[in-house]
Design a protein that fits this description.
Length: about 400
C-alpha cells in the first residue's frame, strides 16, 4: 500500500464559508485526488480517502453544500461507488460471493473449468473481515479428501458453508475447510420417466432449518431438511424458466427465484406456490439472463444480469434502478447486510469485488444528515443490538 503524500489536498487555506468562488479551487483538488485514485490499486485509493483526516473532513463538509450537486462532486462520491472498495483477482470463473455473519469472513466459489463437468478441481477462496485474502484455495477439489467439481451458489448456516456442486449439496467447516456433508440430489422424473441430470445453481437458508436449492435444467426447487438431511421437491414448474439465484425475503419469508432463460423474477411460497413478480413485456425487455438475487437490511432487492452487465435495485415500492452497469459478467451476488456491502463475482473476468452500497434516502429521517457512510465510502455505524443479521 502506497503512502499518501501530505500535499495532495492541503486544507491550510480552506474557506470558512463555501461559495462558488471559493469552492472551485477545492473541486479542482478533489478532481486531482480522484484521478490519482483511478491510477492506483483500489486498496491504495481507499487508503487515500479513508486514512487521511483532511480528505475525509473536506469531503464531509463539501457534501453538505448544495452547490456541489450542481458542479460535479457527485461523480467523486456516488457516481461509481462500485469502484471504491476491494477487488479479488486470480480466481477461475467465480460464481458466488458470500459473507459469514458469525465469523465475519467471506467466501468465493470458483468453477475452474467447465460448469457441468465433474473434474474435481473447483475451489473456494476465503477472505478475512477486511477483505484481505486468507487463502486462495481454502477448499480445493482433489486435495485433503475434498471432492469439489464445479462449485456454484453458497449459503452459510452457523459454522458450515453449504455449496451447490452439480448434483450434490456439499457442506464444509468454515474454520478448517474439511467436508462435513455430501447430499446427492436427483432431479424429478419427466413425463417419459426419464430423469434429467441435476444441475444445482444456488442454495439459500430460511433460518428455520431448511435449505432451498435451485435446479436450472429441471426447473425445480428442492427443500433440504438439515435435521434429517432429507431432500424433497418443493416445486417443479416450467414457469420458473431456468431458476438460478435464490434468496429468502427477509420480511415475508417467501423464496425469491430469478430466471436465466426469460429474465423473470418469481416468488415461491414455502408450500410451493409460484407467483410471478416481474417479467419482460412486449414493449419492455428489462432483464435477459439473471444470475443472482439478495436483499439489503431495509428490504430492497438486488439482482444481477449476467448478459447485460447490470446490477438492479428494486425498492419496497417496486421501483427499479440500475446501480451499476457495464460490468463484466456479474454473477451470483449477495449483500453483507451488517456492513452494507454488495459482493459481486465476475465470471468471465476471473475476479470479484466488494463494494459499498448507498443507503436509501427512505432509511433515514429528514432531520438526519447524510454522511460518507451513506454513499458507501466508509463503513456504516454498527446496527442496533436488537437487529440480527439475516442469512442468505
Amino acid at each position: 500500500m502506497l503512502p499518501l503524500t501530505p500535499h495532495v489536498l492541503p486544507l491550510t487555506s480552506y474557506p470558512s464559508r463555501l461559495t462558488p468562488a471559493t469552492l472551485r479551487p477545492f473541486l479542482d483538488r478533489l478532481l486531482a485526488l480522484q484521478l490519482r485514485c483511478l491510477h492506483q490499486p483500489q486498496s491504495t485509493a481507499i487508503y487515500l480517502v479513508n486514512r487521511t483526516p483532511s480528505v475525509r473532513s473536506l469531503l464531509t463538509r463539501v457534501m453538505s453544500h448544495p452547490a456541489v450537486w450542481l458542479v460535479g462532486v457527485m461523480s467523486l462520491v456516488i457516481a461509481d461507488p462500485l469502484n471504491a472498495q476491494i477487488t479479488v483477482t486470480e480466481l477461475q470463473s467465480p460464481y458466488s460471493f458470500v459473507n459469514d455473519p458469525l465469523e465475519k469472513n467471506y467466501f468465493i466459489s470458483s468453477v475452474n473449468g467447465e460448469a457441468e463437468t465433474a473434474d474435481n478441481n473447483g475451489f473456494i477462496t476465503k477472505l478475512n473481515s477486511n477483505g484481505k485474502l486468507l487463502s486462495l484455495k481454502f477448499i480445493q477439489g482433489g486435495k485433503d479428501d475434498v471432492t469439489l467439481h464445479a462449485p456454484k451458489g453458497m449459503a452459510l448456516v452457523e459454522h458450515v458453508l453449504y455449496v451447490a456442486d452439480l448434483d450434490t449439496l456439499r457442506g464444509f467447516d468454515t474454520t478448517t475447510g474439511r467436508p462435513v456433508m455430501a447430499l446427492t440430489i436427483r432431479s424429478p422424473s419427466t413425463s417419459r420417466s426419464e430423469s434429467l441430470p441435476t444441475s444445482l445453481s444456488d442454495v439459500t437458508f430460511d433460518d428455520k432449518g431448511h435449505l432451498y436449492c435451485s435446479d436450472q435444467k429441471a426447473n425445480t426447487i428442492y427443500r433440504v431438511d438439515l435435521a434429517t438431511q432429507t431432500v424433497a421437491v418443493l416445486i417443479t414448474d416450467r414457469s420458473l424458466a431456468g431458476p438460478t439465484g435464490l434468496a429468502v425475503h427477509p420480511k415475508s419469508g417467501q423464496i425469491i427465484a430469478v430466471s436465466w432463460e426469460k429474465g423473470k423474477i418469481s416468488e415461491v411460497s414455502p408450500d410451493g406456490v409460484v407467483t410471478e413478480l416481474f417479467s419482460n413485456g412486449f414493449f419492455s425487455n428489462r432483464f435477459q439472463n439473471l444470475r443472482g438475487v439478495d436483499f439489503d437490511r431495509w428490504g430492497n432487492m438486488y439482482v444481477s444480469d449476467f448478459t447485460t452487465g447490470k446490477v438492479w435495485r428494486m425498492s419496497w415500492d417496486k421501483r427499479f434502478q440500475v446501480i451499476a452497469e457495464f460490468l463484466p459478467s456479474p454473477g451470483d451476488l449477495s449483500i453483507d447486510r451488517a456492513n452494507n456491502l454488495i459482493l459481486v463475482p465476475y465470471e468471465l473476468a476471473h475476479a470479484a469485488e466488494m463494494n459499498g452500497l448507498e443507503t436509501p434516502s427512505s432509511a433515514k429521517s429528514k432531520k438526519e444528515k447524510r454522511t460518507l457512510a451513506d454513499y458507501g465510502f466508509i463503513p456504516p455505524p454498527p446496527k442496533p443490538a436488537l437487529e440480527e443479521p439475516i442469512k442468505k
